[in-house]
Amino acid sequence: MRRKPAIDTRIAGIATRQHGVITLAQLEGVGLSSAGVTRRVQAGRLFRLHRAVYTVGHAALAKEGRWMAAVLACGEAAVLSHRSAAELWAMLPPRDGPVDVTIASASGRSKRRGIRLHRCPLLPAAATAKRFGISVTTPARTLADLSRTMRPWEVRRAARQAAFDGLDLGHERGGDRTR
């Protein structure tokens, strides 16, 4: 008879696939009780990042971990977007600040620490993708979002980098008339 892996091994496996983060629902899914979560937080084995989102083993996270945690904190339909998506696609250089996340809703909670929440009542699946396991807007959608929130020269810079890297810009974005 095969034994199930220990709870901590299953937690580590999930966190490894998610850049070091895990949700409360996933912790419960592997059989951890709320008391077990509390014990692991007190022992320094879990660190709370957002409501119902934790890092495993340590509090220091790379950018990808911060992005994944923000997306997980905002729900299943959430995607990394705007400046943060441009950074993930390597269109713009990384910089500190809140993580941009778009949710497919016109209402809901508006403030989350460390997250800049954007709403799009109809976010088509064709405008989303996965990159390094993180749900994110496509490069074309990212550029469209940037054009509404950033200065034109920054958008041109991102578009040039996306074209240089061979990212699929689809039909959402025509030429921006840059050289």
Please provide a written account of the structure.
By secondary structure, the chain is of the alpha+beta class. Helices cover 38% and strands 18% of the residues. The chain contains seven helices and eight strands; from the N terminus they run αβααββαβαββββαα. It has a three-stranded antiparallel sheet with strand order 1-3-2, with helices on both faces. It has a three-stranded mixed sheet with strand order 4-5-6. Strands 7-8 form a two-stranded antiparallel sheet. Strand 2 (46-50) and strand 3 (53-56) form a beta hairpin. Residues 172-179 have low confidence and may be disordered.
Q: SSE layout and pairings?
A:
Layout: H1 7-17, E1 21-23, H2 24-29, H3 34-42, E2 46-50, E3 53-56, H4 63-73, E4 79-80, H5 82-88, E5 99-103, E6 115-119, E7 128-131, E8 134-137, H6 139-149, H7 152-164
Parallel strand pairs: 5-6
Antiparallel strand pairs: 1-3, 2-3, 4-5, 7-8
One letter per element, helices H and strands E, the order comes to HEHHEEHEHEEEEHH
Proportion of β residues? 15-25%
Distance between the termini: 65 Å
Coarse morphology: elongated
Count of DSSP-assigned helices = 7
**Spatial extent as radius of gyration:** 18 Å
Q: Which segments are poorly predicted (pLDDT under 50) over 5 or more consecutive residues?
A: 172-179
Spatial order of the strands forming the largest sheet: 1-3-2
The amount of helix comes to: 25-40%
Count of extended strands: 8
Descriptive tags:
179 residues; alpha+beta; three-stranded antiparallel beta sheet; three-stranded mixed beta sheet; 7 helices; 8 strands; disordered C terminus
